[in-house]
């Protein structure tokens, strides 16, 4: 009774049953040893058993309310038969007391029938207990399978299960169909190589090496190819497992392309000017530190050029800020095209640009760079159907001649720039 209650998750109180068993044990002992009396013992046993089996019958047939559980119903019916047989035995011995105190000399048909019934019902009871245990195990397995199936198919990630020996895919989820663009039928019994799912061989080899070494791969970034040949940036995880005694690999693919692009956009916003796309002040400082370290190792010269567009305020006032923004974009493009890839032009704000030119060997080198910038800016162009000619004033400071740090070099280049503006603009000057 207690075991069945625990099996079905019922908390029962058995104070009265424990009291019954104690009374039964004391009484049976007394009528067996102190005053042996088979008749009373024959009344004690079926009466006590009837009470317990009756409770089990009530539990399994009424209290549980599980009409669909055949094993539980069978236990209830067996216990109901136990109860009826015990009641019949009790009534039989009550009406016809046992004349002999030696059980083995008693030939009452009711006792013989009771023993046969007990043995038969015990066999059925074992069978029914095995049934409910198997049904419980089967339900648990089905519940686990259902949980796995729901988790597998409802996952937002692409999940692939393949055999380890030949790499053939034998199951994918809806997430895979959505991300990769293939239907389930298109990929079954095919390998990742046949489907060209790997964006590059590096990703594939890295995953296989890690899987062979550790048996598991966690959050490895790689490239994944879809059915339409689009390349996705994905986070890959994989693990070895056994399915029906066969070594398999379960792989999970999370498409993080948009997150990566968003991260790159945020990083660019943090380090680049929104209008012109040029590096901003923060990125310029970082690049100067790298160039300074290189110049110190190679004992070479750096140039810092401060550049302002001439009469930019007047252009803004005459044509509006939108027009002025287009002028800034055009000027930024021309300045950048005038420099090498290893050089940097940054917008510090308004029409103020700062240039970093490395590997300067002579003053003539920087003069040629300045002339190239001025020539590029001076070429006429048309913006919103309006002819525009751009001129600029430039101030140059050289490392290490005019300073060892960026702030001192910027101050020197600004001083040279203001000197050019004071002398009529549209020119350049190297700091003294």
Identify low-pLDDT runs.
Answer: none
Largest sheet report: 5 strands, antiparallel
Kindly state the percentage of residues in helix: 55-70%
Cα Rg: 46 Å
Q: What does it look like?
A:
This protein has helices spanning 2-7, 15-34, 38-63, 70-95, 109-154, 174-180, 184-187, 192-195, 201-214, 257-271, 281-298, 312-319, 321-338, 363-378, 406-422; strands at 158-163, 169-172, 216-225, 231-243, 246-255, 301-309, 344-349, 352-360, 381-383, 386-388, 392-399, 428-430. It is of the alpha+beta class and 432 residues long. A five-stranded antiparallel β-sheet has the order 2-1-5-4-3, sandwiched between helices. Strands 7-8-6-11-12 form a five-stranded mixed β-sheet, with helices on both faces. The longest helix has 46 residues, at 109-154. It is rod-shaped. The chain starts with a helix and ends with a strand. The relative contact order is 0.05. The mean pLDDT is 88.
Notable features of this structure?
alpha+beta, 5-stranded antiparallel sheet, 15 helices, 432 residues, 5-stranded mixed sheet
Short description:
The protein is α+β, with helices and mostly antiparallel strands and 432 residues long.
